[in-house]
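Notebook p. 47: complex prediction with WTA.
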Amino acid sequence: MNENKQAPGVYSVPKEWAERAYIDSERYAAMYAASIADPKGFWGEHGKRIHWFKPYGTVKNTSFEPGKVSIKWFEDGTTNVSHNCVDRHLPERGDQIAIIGVRDDPKDDAVRITYRELHAHVMKWANVLQSQGVRKGDNVTLYLPTIPEAAYAMLACARIGAVHSAVSTGLSPDKLGSRIADAASTVVVTADQGPRGGRNNPMKANVDAALDKLPGVVTSVIVVKRTGAPVEMLQGRDHYYDELAMTVPDECPPVEMNAEDPLFLLYTSGSTGKPKGVVHTTGGYLVYAAMTHQYVFDYHVGDIHWCTAELGWITGHSYIVYGPLANGATTLIFEGTPTYPSMSRYWDVIDKHKVSLFYTAPTAIRSLMGSGEDAVKSNSLASLRLLGSVGEPIDPKTWEWYHRVVGGGRCPIVDTWFQTETGGILITPLPGATKLKPGSVGTPFFGVRPELVDEAGDVLDGVENGNLVIADSWPGQMRTLYRDHERFEQEYFSLYPGKYFTGDGARRDADGYYSITGRVDDVINVSGHRIGTAEVESALVAHASVSEAAVVGYPHEIKGQGIYAYVTLIDGEAAADELRKELVSWVRKEIGPIFTIDKVQFALGLPKTTSGKIIRRILRKIAEDKCTEFGDSSTLSNPTVVDHLIDNRLNRK
Ligand code: WTA
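Predicted complex, structure tokens below:
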């Protein structure tokens, strides 16, 4: 065990991995250099990994120039994502399992869907969507549990050229409603209920609540019977999928799509209150998702790939559905949670379904680590070959545990860095090529040009800490923000003109390996889920007792970051514990249960500059219990407020 440990905290590439993996260190160096020296030649070649109805002539046509940001890949080619993920595999692997659907309750049998069955489901779904008026270019909102039907619906949209907009089930009816409204979806797909962790999420009821506030927008709600519980069905608007399916034909050919036609919208949080509709398109996205899936996970035929993300997040899109299925893989879709019905649920699923590639988030590992090694060791986990981590920084202690206890010391860990906006993984180890350093996300994938810059935008060379930017486009990059290209340019290309700004800080070591230090904007990462502080603040001030609120993140043992809210009350109301609880549940209701505030501190006032701007730097330090490290406070207009905040701080070591 651990025989590849080179120096403290460094693991060299195991010999058998260097031999069997697609990419070893020499190949990585050569391919990476080629991808940077000649992106058009490189991607022109690798673009061929998917099937094109009409081959592309132009490979790359991209500009990061301020005022003229435009990103196009393979722009004159035509293809169809559903054809590539399904039909294309039929001759060779029609009888192979495409999807294993594992339900929340371990007593329920898993469903095993072959590529041939997937084909039939997707065509049926496509016809059902069309029967509800969905046409090429229309946006369809999907609010579904992580079940095979969600993948059918996504692929069905792609088949007919509709654009799906998946919304996480952890978000509130209000947030769902604002996403439906922004996308102007006339059709919403949901389930009666969504079992998760032993509880039934009232999904249809949530849709009803969202639509109550949006009269006239949605003309059809398609309901998957997941539990069969009775739900209210509005005559004329709501239909059970099963009943619609009986009325439509079985066959539905894929529509020829331009490479730059949109494939999906995915809303994510930014540093202002309004969520951003990230737009991904067809050709470049699929090439990038498929290629990263193959090389990062070193996917080979026969591997069972399990990514534990929810389908409603980018990781679910790229590494449960599109990447694996484009490669003809078997992908496991899991509805449940890591801790239900016991702390060994993940490990039970791995053994039962012989999972070989396992991809999860640090927060899940940390929540399981606490229950000790026995919960893991009651399973063999012998099928595992490779482990992955995504969504937030993984601390070395958690990394070592994951490697030693889950991976038995023999499975490389790929700590993959990416974002909703990047479509696929940008910085990552490759298991046959890269040494592993716990806490480091390794080196850039092919075609990716990371740079570190200082506040002034000057590029930093060598061993450095800085803001992470990407100097040139890659095929999986987002193309725009839905109906807001100006905000797209403003948020991502204005601070460091000519470069894509990630919003993350990073460190580069002497080997050129990157470590992500966290967000440098007003975004908090809670259990791998992004939320803008402004979004939480506006939910808080919507409460009748709240006058002002400021929200910051602080280090949290399980969640990575916790949410710390400073609240001032109207009329100096008594700051009772009662109210504290009420505010926490208020925000859960407003935004969704995944974003539960951890600490509410009542304040006399908030630290502000003389021009009235809240000084968050001070609030972050108080939340971290580092009250002596405020730095320059000369612009502080109200020092007594800070003394009160320090005296009443809630995190004390
Ligand atoms: C963070 C999730 C450290 C980062 C794929 C990024 C990470 C944000 C890692 C994107 C990682 C993602 N190590 N931090 N391996 N992966 N992040 O859009 O701050 O939900 O900007 O996409 O998660 O979150 P998003």
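Notes: Residues 574 and 602 are 10 Å apart (CA to CA). The chain is about 30% helix and 25% strand.
Next step: compare against the earlier run before touching the bench.
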